[in-house]
Amino acid sequence: MNFDSIFNSAQEAFLFYKNLPGTEKGAFLDTMADVLESHRSEIVPLAVKESNLPEGRINGELGRTTGQIRLFANLVKEGSWVEATIDPALPDRTPLPRADIRRFLTPLGPVVVFGASNFPLAFSTAGGDTISALAAGCPVIYKAHPAHPETSRKVADCIHQAILKCGLPSALFTHVEGGIAEGQALVKHPLAKAVAFTGSHAGGMALFHLANQRENPIPVYAEMGSVNPIFTFPHKLEKENQALAKAFISSLTLGVGQFCTNPGLIFVPEAQAKAFENAVAAELKDIAVAPMLHPGIAQAYYDSIQFLESREELRWVKVADPKHLINGSTAMAEIKAADWLKDTLFQKEVFGAFAMMVVYQSEDELLEIAQHLHGQLTITVWAEAEELQNQLFLVNLLEEKCGRLLFKGVPTGVEVGYAMQHGGPFPSTTAPNSTSVGAHAIKRFARPIAFQDMPQELLPDALRDGNPLGIWRMVNGNLEK
Amino acid sequence: MNFDSIFNSAQEAFLFYKNLPGTEKGAFLDTMADVLESHRSEIVPLAVKESNLPEGRINGELGRTTGQIRLFANLVKEGSWVEATIDPALPDRTPLPRADIRRFLTPLGPVVVFGASNFPLAFSTAGGDTISALAAGCPVIYKAHPAHPETSRKVADCIHQAILKCGLPSALFTHVEGGIAEGQALVKHPLAKAVAFTGSHAGGMALFHLANQRENPIPVYAEMGSVNPIFTFPHKLEKENQALAKAFISSLTLGVGQFCTNPGLIFVPEAQAKAFENAVAAELKDIAVAPMLHPGIAQAYYDSIQFLESREELRWVKVADPKHLINGSTAMAEIKAADWLKDTLFQKEVFGAFAMMVVYQSEDELLEIAQHLHGQLTITVWAEAEELQNQLFLVNLLEEKCGRLLFKGVPTGVEVGYAMQHGGPFPSTTAPNSTSVGAHAIKRFARPIAFQDMPQELLPDALRDGNPLGIWRMVNGNLEK
Q: Which parts form a coiled-coil structure per UniProt (chains A, B) (predicted)?
């Protein structure tokens, strides 16, 4: 397994591609979105077959995929994302003159992207990681997820059609199939400059440690999921018991619970617990079993549930029913907060439609919970306005534990926009200062460089006098266009 | 050695301090700069005594220190650094409404800062790392450098005077003395959220690996120095032989060569090598020996030189003369590019006034050198405008290898401004996507968080409707104020 020629070609492509104007990079991404759309009728059935996800979901996911491609296309066509910063020379400054210094974000080089099983399109071959890397100016060496090989090959074909149409080097994107050994070899290659991954904690941590032990360590942007707790308060639950139970169960069971932002943990006040449990149980009755992504995931889900069933602290509201091992059947258990606090095992993500309902007795207990809580992609607070006013300190604590804090709705259904933060403190990710969804995701694949007294004709357009790109730039500390 | 109470207090201080308005954080920093200025007559003699650096330099360094404190004070008083981004709700969007999502940068929590021996003020107790962390909203647990304990205590006193004057919690800054074991214990503490370090490669890498092996890994911003090569071209050297030799030697020997940006490597074309060597030798005659920071550094310097003297590829232009072990005596050796390319040992930094002059024969050799070169804080190109036009590909390659690329002047003397980038690809730093000098240094100590449908009264001012802080914000993808 030698990836030298792949990386050498990618590096060569990089040295050309990085200097192309944003308008050309954006046109390439737009072309890719067009090609994907025009192959919808071929892609969708493949992805449905390989993921067991319903056609409606896959159709939506393709729309989301091309939507985020166009978001990044617009971002790089507009161009201000490079954070151009200019401190002009001050030749007459005393005691020493100041040189002309200009800084912007430059792409890292070839990066390795790992596909995710639960989003065969939006977080896979032409998914957010690949696209934000290409938008930044980085060639992508893509390690296909073995759960959907045909879908992946088809999408890779579309990417190469777009590359061809735009006259770009084909090494901008390389599709690699294989297992763990291939993935490790890619991460270890000396020319790799960063790694993006969405998947399990074990997988993410293995890549993280591998990359840190390289002779030249590289960043690993691993999004490893979380349990996404919901904190509920008495008045809110009393007023909206039925609606909240419905919203919770609908979010928990969406896509058979196979989302990173799936709410696997809910904190409920003791006085309202019984009513909420009844409402939840009623909702659960209508939830049909549905096939999970692949038998391995279903097996892991039932193994985790079975393990939890041996814990006497848990009282089961609904027990999972593994009729056929590919099917995901919803499960839910109740536990006292005092017991939950005793073992961090109860914070471990069970990938699938399982939730733990933690019954708390006091606000002091809630503060203890917040302090005890591991890092999360999201935390949701369901409270009436007036009871929120008494929880400012709790909200302050919860901010430390998540990347996104919600006060309405459910954590599933991550918007792709400018303000989205999909990331969070460890162990939800290995890089809490980054996001894998939304416009800011592009920053993961760039680093700042400063040019000192560089001749105008050599400067990148983003930093030239007269602002030929018409982008936002900070000049002498002031933003201007 | 138990730092629990220090970190617990810092965490408590953090939960209060992070929510203070930028104007109050800025006022605190301004007060600190005032207190330091008012103690100049006590600080300067201590630092001179403990660093062996001349009084003029230390006086200048104190000015630089208070200057950068005021830069960060202004940055947080102005407030736009938090990158406020708002995607307002779209309740009527189909098929699904969009929630209100607002994102900004929030401080990480308590951070550990290590002082540097070569800047007893500007990169130490109240230096750039401490100040950018406090500006971001993070309490600092500061590990004093054992080379200047009295200076460090005095500056820590000034910081605490400022804390007291502003009525802030004293745990915002904690001064810790000790050795390697204490430093390691700080980095391993569960409540530590990031580490900043300026120093040796060995020291930085030890902290990097320690932090990555924590149960919850944290980022290490280690600036570990580099050899900062200068690439010279024939016409430029012919025209300015004398002036360039003078500039080079003056930069090489500034502060007895004890700068991270010290130019320890210079590439010279064969035809001009002899004349340049003569000019350099003439300059070197006037350079007096001067004491280094401390005997340990002088010892390491002479050990490295002695080791290199055993290498037959090197021809010595000036041999170091260790009359008294504390003194730094300049040394310089010449080597053929073909030999230099054979051993990466010749890229290793020798901390002190040592430079290697590498004689190249062709432009092809230069490209090979650029490819072979390790990551650097800076690279300098000395070329005439017309010969630069033939080196576009080389310049393109060099961009991949550094954080700052200069076309005039010398790499020493790092400006503290908005556009400065003091960082670079590994092994010059462990975090090429960050800078330890200049306004952007604050970003190291913050991470993004998004609030979804948060009630107005709970939102931080930076994200409220009506923009009460009057800062730059991105709303629906457009920057506005």
A: none
Q: How far is CA B135 from CA A224, B108, B114, in A?
A: 31, 12, 17
CB distance A427–B216 less than 8 Å?
yes
Q: Is B223 a residue of the active site?
A: yes
Q: Helix A4-17 crosses helix B392-399 at what angle (to 10 degrees)?
A: 110
Among candidates A101, A212, A443 on the partner chain, residue whose Cβ is nearest the Cβ of B417: A101
How far is CA B249 from each of CA B261, B263, B281, rounded to the nearest angstrom? Answer: 13, 9, 9
> Starting at the edge strand that comes first in sequence, how are the strands of the sheet with B195-198 ordered?
B173-176, B140-143, B111-114, B195-198, B220-223
Which element (helix H / strand E) includes B316? strand B315-318
* Residue A323, pLDDT above cutoff 90: no
Q: Which of B205, B226, B415, B480 to mutate to test the interface with A (most CBs of A within 10 A)?
A: B415
CB contact (8 A) between residue B451 and residue A405: yes
In this predicted complex, what is the ipTM?
0.97
Render pLDDT for B409-456 as a digit per residue (tens, 0 to 9): 999 999 999 999 999 999 999 999 999 999 999 999 999 999 999 999
Domains annotated on chain A, with CATH? 4-224+431-480 (3.40.605.10), 230-406 (3.40.309.10)
Three-class SS of residue A224? coil
Structure confidence by residue, pLDDT tens digits, A41-64: 999 999 999 999 999 999 999 999
Q: Chain B residue closest to A458 (CA)?
A: B392
User: Is the alpha carbon torsion for B159, B164, B168, B170 positive or negative?
Assistant: positive
Query: What distance in Å separates the CA atoms of residue A438 and residue A436, rounded to the nearest whole number?
Result: 7
Cβ–Cβ gap B474/A85 under 8 Å = no
User: A393 to chain B: which residues are within 8 Å by CB?
Assistant: 15
Look at the block and give the residue holding tokens 């307002």: B88
Interface contact flag, A449 B404, Cβ < 8 Å:
yes
